[in-house]
Amino acid sequence: MKPESILEESLFETRPYVEYWDELKKLVEKLWKEASNREEFIRRLEDEMRKAKEPFKTDIKIFIQKFRAAEESP
User: Considering only CA atoms, which of 57, 74, 70 is closest in space to residue 11?
Assistant: First the structure.
């Protein structure tokens, strides 16, 4: 699956479970553009998650889980 497809699928799968959808989408798209690879993207998301307060912290965590699951699916 193409990286952009994984990103789009992950955002789609995350939407029903998060409180701050718009903020999450903006953050994810910003970090995706800035990161040079998937590992850096995840690392940056994890850094943001550590800085965030609840419930946004949980929103980021849910996205990371969905992103990793999408990467592993065929």
Answer: 70
